[in-house]
Every structure is written in C-alpha cells, then in structure tokens.
Amino acid sequence: MLGLSFPRLAIFFVWLARPAVFTAAISSGFVALLGIIFVPFTTLMYVLLWSPAGLTGFDWLWITLAFLVDIGSLGASAWGYRGRAAAYTA
Questions:
Q1: Candidate ranges 4-8, 37-41, 71-75; pick with highest mean pLDDT
Q2: CB neighbours of 79 closer than 8 A, spacing ≥ 6?
Q3: Using CA atoms, how far apart are residues 90 and 77, in angstroms rounded to an integer?
C-alpha cells in the first residue's frame, strides 16, 4: 500500500513546493489528474525533469523507465490477483 502511495505523495509535495513549475509542466488539470491516477511515476519524472527549454534525449530515457515501472506495477497487481479472479468464474 505504501508503494502505491509514494509517487502520488511525491507529486503532491512537488506541487506544494513548486506549484508554478508543476503548472507549467502540466498545463491541464485533467491531464495531471489522469497522470496521477494511471501513471504516477511517469508524471512525477516528467514534472521533475521538465524545463522551459523542453526535454532532451536523456530525459526521455528516464521518463521511459518510469513508464515501464508504472506498467510493471500494473502487471504485478494483475499477476497477484489472478487466483482471486478464477474463484469468481461460473
């Protein structure tokens, strides 16, 4: 449970500490909300690496790795619950 809340708490603290940077990096509140819900590590890395000049090639590597962590956590959750879903089939 703590692992799931870490990136969301980190995003919250980044938003508290640097709201102007957070707003400049993610201009839409709806996109920020979707990012926090579905891909929190990717959203966190994007906000931390964002600069007014844009993202460079090496920054995209870190964002890609964060996206793989997000996908991996979703896959691990599905793998962990695979036995429970089978119990509900008719």
A1: 37-41
A2: none
A3: 23
Collect all residues with Cβ–Cβ distance below 8 Å to 58 and sequence separation of at least 6: none
pTM of the shown model: 0.79
The answer to whether the beta carbons of residues 26 and 43 sit under 8 Å apart is yes
Give the start-to-end residue ranges of the domains of the chain.
Answer: 2-86
Q: Exposed, middle or buried: residue 41 (CB in 10 Å: 0-12, 13-18, 19+)?
A: buried
| 81 vs 5, higher pLDDT | 5
Structure tokens at 69: 């962590």
Per-residue tokens: 20: 């102007």
Instruction: Tell me the average pLDDT of the chain.
Output: 85
Alpha helices in 1-90 (DSSP H): 2-17, 19-25, 29-38, 40-49, 57-80, 82-86
